Known about the structure:
Blueprint: E1 2-7, E2 13-18, H1 24-28, E3 49-52, H2 65-72, E4 82-84, E5 97-101
Parallel strand pairs: 1-5
Antiparallel strand pairs: 1-2, 3-4, 3-5
FE2/S2 (inorganic) cluster (FES) is lined by residues 25, 37-39, 41-48, 84, 86.
Amino acid sequence: MVQLVVTNRDGQVVEVEAEVGGSVMESIRDMDASIEAICGGMCSCATCHCLVDINWLEQLPARSDDELELLEELECFDPSRSRLVCQIPVTEELDGLVLTVGPEE
Ligand code: FES
C-alpha cells in the first residue's frame, strides 16, 4: 500500500491508501467529493480528471494519445497538470503522490 494525498472537490485534503497494481482512479473514486469515473477506467469518459502536483509530473507515465484527446476537450484542461487517473497505475514510486480532483464539467 502507498499513500496518496488528494484534495477533493470540497477543498479538503485527504490521505488515501492505494493498492500497488491498481489504478489511481480505483484508489480515490470512493472518497467524498471525488471523481465519478463513469466508464470504469476505459479511457472514454474523462470523468476521472485530476490535476497532479507539478513536483510529481516526472514520475508519471506519459499520456497516451487517447488520454490527451479526451483531456483537451475539457474546459479546465491544464496542459501540464491534467491527467485521467484511470490511466495511472499505482506503483511504490508514487508513495506520497499529490493531486487535486478536477472541477465538475
Ligand atoms: S474512468 Fe473514464 S476516462 Fe478514466
